[in-house]
Structures are given as structure tokens and as C-alpha cells.
Amino acid sequence: MADQIDRLRFQLRTLPPAPSIPAVDSVSARVEDLIGITTAVSAQIKHCLSDLMSGGPTKAALQAYSNAVAPLGEALTELGRMHAEIAHYNFTTHPAHRGSPPNLELPRQEVNETVSGCCEAADEILDAAAIELRDAAVKLMPSPSRLQPGTPGRALRAGSALPSLPPAPPAVTPRAAKSR
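^ that's the sequence the OP posted. Answer follows.
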């Protein structure tokens, strides 16, 4: 999920900068992406709650996922504010002053300031949420003591949805590195 947030942050940065106003449909798509991420985090919280009785790292993961919910909600608020400002400008302000470009200059500038501020705030907030989600993923990884001997990266619990650990890469000695 943290990767999805990183992708969303990238997509927010690719929105056209001022003085252009982003298209409503592109902002709507980013809002839908964030709603999907928030829904997935909520599902993980629900999953952690159902596994809470079994013990394990679920309590720590539950806390980490719960910590991610607030920043996701704040980011959704910022994207919603940006979406509302753009929609209001495009469908109310612009048609009302279409014949008078000087009257559109101030509203356009205000929308640009709001959009820029919302994008910057959402980017910072989403960064905090990504950190929380990475923390949750680390807490969900099986500890080395729970791994089966002889099968690196395999968790003891069959059917576990936890990510498996990749095998450790062979160490490169300085002498071998020089010979290349």
C-alpha cells in the first residue's frame, strides 16, 4: 500500500502546474485512488482485529495501520478541497465571467493558490501515511525465529498472507569486486 501511495504522490506531482488548472477528471481519479488505498488500510485493520486473538505481531500491525488512517483522511480532505475548488471554478466562476477575462484573473489566481497548497499538503501528509504503512509491513513480517529451518523465506503458518523474506544475496568480497 505504501507503493500505491508513492504512485499517487507521483501522479499528484504530474498535475499541470499554475497557471494551468488541472482537469476535474484527473483530480477525481486521484481522489478515487486515495479512497481505494484508505479502503485497503481499513480492510487490513479489520483483518488484524480478527487475528488479534491468535497473538503474534497483529497488535503492533493494528497500531501501525490505525496510525495510517488519520493521515489518509487528512490527505483525502486536501484532495477533496482541491477537487471542489476546481469544479467550482470550471462550472460556476468561469461560465459567469467568460466574456470578461479581467474578471477571471483573480478567481483563477485564487484557484491556483488553493490547488498548489492542497497538492503540497497532500504530498506531505501522504508521505507520513506511507511511513506508517511501511512500518506496518515491517511489523507483519515473520521474525527469523518463526521461520522453518532449511527453507529461507517461508513462514511457519501455512497459507499466511505475510510477505516472504527473500534469500540473502551472496556477500561480495572486496577482492572479488576488484577483479571485475
